[in-house]
């Protein structure tokens, strides 16, 4: 069978792209090494934060708002609750770029944002003990996405629209010739008019087969759940959070229906080869000591470690994404390097990828994510 489009990697970005392409009538084949959603890449662990006023740069705000609109649409179409509007509390020193970007984004885009000094934060959320000098920026309209359920929802809809999803099948070879794409797995070969490479931490290896060497750095990350006082940390009263402290950047989630408080460290992590087994949670001493120290300092009414997991970030040098067409092939779109903050955007990235394949352009401004910035 000949396809209009093949998507390599049906994870966060790829599954969303598969949904939009099949909805627009494209004969789409999605291929994944595992059975998405799964726990081998970058999209597991129950929850992801979605923020709109964006610390990483104002250019992300229109994308975040469009992504939120598309998540709301997905909830309506499927009848599933995928988003919890817990609000997000961003904490840091007032003068940092992260906090200043959040404040200026909220002004430019008229986003609701409450700026609180440390004592106001501690008063509003008695589960937090924030020292003086830090401030909190609380965005009440943002919150939490149930990440695996989002991917499942796009998968169901893509299949309903006629997409073929080939699971537990790794793509080994790919080539582009005469405006046709050929990809091979262990025992099969497929052809299509166009290709999307959205293979997360594995994208670098695949793209090198199309003569494209991107500066992608896969990194091992850890996160864990802790028993916590439900009175203080339950999701109806306590927000998702991101803390830029002098001892590292941490993020986390309130306890959802007794899950415990989930926390992870955003900065740091060891570079890994995604083709090899990653060390499990707890194999490095700092896996637990970092998180416990953070909770001890800022959320001391938490208790025992329940369990932890490992996951992968795919970092670019500037930690901005790569969303672009291949410089030599206008029928190959690429989405990678989401640098630990991409999930919230996967709905809109799926739409952008599908637009790039269908019309060669997107309504969204994706110039900041172009490949030629690395030249
Ligand atoms: C611990 C952690 C916490 C995070 N927290 C947040 C957050 O709060 N908010 C936020 O917005 N983002 C967050 N992120 C980042 C976000 O989850 C990622 O940016 C996003 O999931 C990346 O999506 P992806 O599609 O690139 O990768 P993935 O979702 O991993 O998808 C890639 C897919 O490609 C497949 N694949 C790879 N190679 C091949 C091959 N050769 N053949 C076939 N298939 C292949 C893989 O099996 C996989 O399914 C977090 C990430 C981690 C790890």
From TrEMBL:
<dbReference type="GO" id="GO:0008115">
    <property type="term" value="F:sarcosine oxidase activity"/>
</dbReference>
<dbReference type="Pfam" id="PF01266">
    <property type="entry name" value="DAO"/>
</dbReference>
<feature type="domain" description="FAD dependent oxidoreductase">
    <location>
        <begin position="4"/>
        <end position="356"/>
    </location>
</feature>
<protein>
    <submittedName>
        <fullName>Methyltryptophan oxidase</fullName>
    </submittedName>
</protein>
<keyword id="KW-0285">Flavoprotein</keyword>
<dbReference type="InterPro" id="IPR045170">
    <property type="entry name" value="MTOX"/>
</dbReference>
<dbReference type="GO" id="GO:0050660">
    <property type="term" value="F:flavin adenine dinucleotide binding"/>
</dbReference>
<keyword id="KW-0560">Oxidoreductase</keyword>
<dbReference type="InterPro" id="IPR006076">
    <property type="entry name" value="FAD-dep_OxRdtase"/>
</dbReference>
<dbReference type="GO" id="GO:0005829">
    <property type="term" value="C:cytosol"/>
</dbReference>
<dbReference type="InterPro" id="IPR036188">
    <property type="entry name" value="FAD/NAD-bd_sf"/>
</dbReference>
<keyword id="KW-0274">FAD</keyword>
